[in-house]
Backbone:
């Protein structure tokens, strides 16, 4: 749980969670003239989390104090999120905003379609909004977040959602409580590579939801991912993981890959499937969440 700290006269927060997500289904329903794809998806929060720590700096500098393989500091979404929030806060409030030291304990695999970088950025915006007393609303932070990545507004939304458009239209949904077995194949998938493929279909019929906030279980438990055929054609390891996990449940890919997952109603069923999988995989057994874990700490955006 996030803890407020005071060290050498400077305040901060430690142990701030940034949860991963699964796309329980992902449909590409069209494309805008500017090239952006129109999507429909059910986003599910899970209890696989990165852990972030923040400590104010008196010199105004924004610095990530630990190394992350493959992610230079200047390209890190958390650093970019902090810099953008600082800029916006100084314009809004007309006063000096402190700098910050950021450290990140990574548990969410990169290049897996689990949204780790976007979630880290969202947690950064929420925590620094409170730490720096910026006073931004959830809508304000979403505006800032969408400039960093399409998935950032979802994590700022703080609950499971039916997502439409390019990721900016969100409706809260109730999803089944349960467990997921997630496999990370040994490949890194570039989102742009998948969306640029000429083989990608973009004409799935839009969904008609019967009522809000309750969502049809069949889409949750038996969904499909329109990006999956392209990803498996480029990365055979994804198909191999799907075949292995498919022995135990409806296996499909999340996001643009490479992670694949299957839903189980109980932890026991998930653990049984885990034991039967090949030892070549990185396997995670995770639980569904109903809300962002930062909500439980009092660190959250406004209404």
Residues:
């Amino acid at each position: 749980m996030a803890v407020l700290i005071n060290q050498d006269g400077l305040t901060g927060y430690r142990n701030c969670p940034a949860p991963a997500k699964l796309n329980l289904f992902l449909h590409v329903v069209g494309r805008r003239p500017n090239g952006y794809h129109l999507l429909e998806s059910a986003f599910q929060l899970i209890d696989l989390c990165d852990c972030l720590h923040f400590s104010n700096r008196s010199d105004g500098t924004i610095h990530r104090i630990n190394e992350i393989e493959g992610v230079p500091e200047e390209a890190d979404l958390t650093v970019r999120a902090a810099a953008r929030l600082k800029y916006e806060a100084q314009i809004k409030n007309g006063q000096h905003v402190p700098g910050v030291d950021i450290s990140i304990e990574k548990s969410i695999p990169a290049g897996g379609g689990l949204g780790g970088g976007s979630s880290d950025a969202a947690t950064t915006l929420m925590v620094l909004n409170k730490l720096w007393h910026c006073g931004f609303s959830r809508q304000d932070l979403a505006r800032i977040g969408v400039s960093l990545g399409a998935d950032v507004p979802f994590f700022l939304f703080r609950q499971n959602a039916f997502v439409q458009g390019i990721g900016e239209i969100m409706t809260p949904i109730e999803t089944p409580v349960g467990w997921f077995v997630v496999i990370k194949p040994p490949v890194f998938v570039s989102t742009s590579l998948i969306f640029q493929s000429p083989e990608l279909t973009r004409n799935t019929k839009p969904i008609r939801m019967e009522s809000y906030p309750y969502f049809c279980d069949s889409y949750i438990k038996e969904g499909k991912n329109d990006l999956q055929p392209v990803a498996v054609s480029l990365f055979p390891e994804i198909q191999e993981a799907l075949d292995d996990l498919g022995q135990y449940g409806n296996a499909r890919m999340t996001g643009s890959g490479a992670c694949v997952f299957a839903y189980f109603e109980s932890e026991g069923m998930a653990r049984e499937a885990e034991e039967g999988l090949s030892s070549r995989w990185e396997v995670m057994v995770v639980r569904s969440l109903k809300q962002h874990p930062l909500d439980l700490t009092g660190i959250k955006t406004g209404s």
